[in-house]
Design brief:
With 78 residues, the protein is mainly α. The protein has a domain of 41 residues: Orthogonal Bundle (Arc Repressor Mutant). It is built from four helices and no strands. The longest helix is centred in the C-terminal third of the chain and has 16 residues. The two termini are 19 Å apart.
């Protein structure tokens, strides 16, 4: 929840003209996510699509969540 509060505060400051909009380079540097490509068997991809549709989220978002949960169960994330 603190992340959402920080985002709301930042948006409010920008709307009030207190903070300049960051450059594209600054946004890219601040990103803590990375992208990978994964090849899934057709049946696994079909299941991922079905679950994502049921939950109203994208396949990528659900896949990221499932990977994070699997890692958390194997060992604590840093």
């Amino acid at each position: 929840m603190p992340l959402l509060q920080d985002l709301v505060q930042e948006l409010q400051q920008r709307l009030e003209g207190q903070a300049p909009a960051p450059s594209s380079a600054a946004v890219a540097d601040a990103s803590s996510s990375e992208r990978i490509n994964v090849t899934l068997p057709r049946g696994v991809m079909d299941e991922l699509k079905r679950h994502a549709l049921e939950e109203g989220r994208s396949c990528g978002n659900l896949a990221a969540y499932l990977v994070e949960e699997a890692l958390r169960r194997h060992r604590p994330l840093h």
